[in-house]
Amino acid sequence: MGEGYSATLPEKLNTGKWNVYRSALSPLKLISRYSDHPEVGTLHDNFVCAVEKYPDHRYLGSRVWLDGTIGQYKWMTYGEVSHARSAIGSALQNYGLPKGARIGIYFINRPEWMIVDHACSAYSYVSVPLYDTLGPDAVKYIVNHADVQAIFCVPGNLNSMISYLSEIPNVRLIVVVDGVEENLPSLPTTCGAKITTFSKLLNQGRIDLKPHSPPSPDDIATIQYTSGTTGTPKGAMLTHGNFIANSAGVAFAVTFYPTDVYLSYLPLAHIYERATQVVCAHYGVAVGFYQGDNLKLMDDAVILRPTIFCSVPRLYNKIYAGITNAVKSSGALKERLFNIAYNSKKQALMNGQNSSPVWDRLVFNKIKEKLGGRVRVMYSGASPISPDVLDFLRVCFGCKVYEGYGMTETSCAISINDPGDVTSGHVGAPSLACEIKLVDVPEMNYTSDDQPYPHGEICVRGPIVFRGYLKDEVQTKEILDDEGWLHTGDIGLWLEGGRLKIIDRKKNIFKLAQGEYIAPEKIENVYAKCKFVAQCFVYGDSFKSCLVAIVCVEPDVLKGWAKAQGIKYEDLGQLCRHPRARAAVLADMDAIGREAGLRGFEFAKAITLVPEPLTVEGGLLTPTMKIKRPQAKEHFGKAISEMYYGISKMDPIVHKL
To answer: Quick one: which of 10, 127, 514, 534 is 20 to 30 A from 243 by CA?
Structure first.
């Protein structure tokens, strides 16, 4: 039975309903290999295929420092990277590391990350990304939990690691990227580990090259630790076959070319960036790495001029806010011109027509230049993006903008927008490498009988689903059932045409005292469009009848407002406590909320402004920039209590709707 973008399967469940969905592009078969290269079954095969087709193409690039100044990109070709990974893998063999040994990678995105990862694939090692943002305790835990035997790190991480070397006894080799041999510290003789530099390891491997020892598709390629919002990290075991199935599944919706250039800055320790790199290698894409500072990302983009740009809603929200604020402060005439151009181009796109090139010349080309001027496709993932922001990106950057949905445990993509679909507010149809069903959650009143759309917990099955969590049968059984269905914990619904819409995390949905269900992330994404708001944490529970919010302010915007209002203050903290500042921000949030169609009980009735952002280092964000809600509740407990007390006393700061 066809449903447009999805097809439902003739597979009856216990309920007798026909509600298993697959992509309409391949309803009878789940894809596990590339249609153009069915022989590619592992990450090793994937890279070998690229090297054979594109040996002299640019592959990995990084910006070079000269006399204290950052310069242009310097590139390694696919062929050069191939030789380097063979040398690194050979040297690891020479150090006595057996097949299947776990290799830790402990630094941010740079060419050596991919070289080590390719070496692992060629010699059947298992890569284990070590998050540089999780702190030494988490790194220590992962190294021991995964039995890591070799760690590649940078000088900045070396000293802290040496301080707890006696607590990670399985480590036999430490390789320092950018390390200088003479400056390496000597390790205690009792620890049993050796230390060397990346360049020395490279030379050792070149002198004594070993033949590749390729893995099979069922072999574990990586153990990817997910931080989660509570508890210790869980090690998701992903096979080579998982990665190839994911890549092949999205290849039908995504077309990359050898002429494409990709800017790599999303953490390689996470599945979104990792899976993107697999697709890039398959198509011979040039991958340029950022210089390591998110604040200088736009500078890197202007120099690299990428054609592919992947990001998360948090950054896209900032781009949206930056452009709209610039337009509003550009004067009435320019603002009117922008609005006319925007509405005209958006209307043309929605009707499947080409917009007038005049609008690009007059208005949008300047915006495109912020990312180098050549971006032809954008991707958004990790959390839901506001439909308004997604449409805004399509119009302003004049390119395809895809929203995808996935998770570490599914090797990345569960669903993705169809290239020809110009609607927003959903995450498209299933990837060709999986099937999806919605399972009733009766305690939250979500069922397949809901009208007009069926609701339920999103469950996924297919060749992209992981092997389970390392050494953790209990949590594996909680997420993977006996029939192979992975229970995501996300609540979704099917829109017309078989397109999936995410409502929120099952465990993040809470009830207010009068029984209304609240999806805080949805509300936070609405408020993120407010010019004063850098970040927002919405809180409520079943003992309260309304919501409150902690707002991390955009300092420049709030200071600009204060100057215009003639408000004096000593520092940003004092300004945040000013009743008029609080009232102005809440009024703006209310306006944004009404525009977005929030229901009355979804509005924050009181807010607290804070000058400092929520950070990973501060323990309030996961590395994928999701709010750790239990920790945030505890951290802001006093402010939350005061807001509810103020509401109960009908304090003047309460905004009546």
So the answer is: 10
